[in-house]
Hints:
By secondary structure, the protein is of the alpha+beta class. The protein has 2 helices and 5 strands; from the N terminus they run ββββαβα. A 5-stranded antiparallel beta sheet has the order 4-3-2-1-5. The longest helix has 19 residues, at 38-56. The protein starts with a strand and ends with a helix. The mean pLDDT is 79.
Amino acid sequence: MPRYYKVYDSKEALYVTVDDGGAVIIKDGAGNKIFLTSYQAKLMKFGIDNLLKGLLGQDNADVKIEELSKIEVNIDVY
């Protein structure tokens, strides 16, 4: 069963879908989509974690992650 997340701060929101196999779909507010295999998602997570630690320090403190239900995803995103 896929899991849905909303990753947001005060300026922008991204909607993330993770399927059972680990593949990821990332959608922004403008409707742009990125499809990642489970391996690509694993590499990206590693890169983003290190990038945020190195570049932003504590500046990313207002970023929030919220798990959404399928109903909320259909209302918010589509």
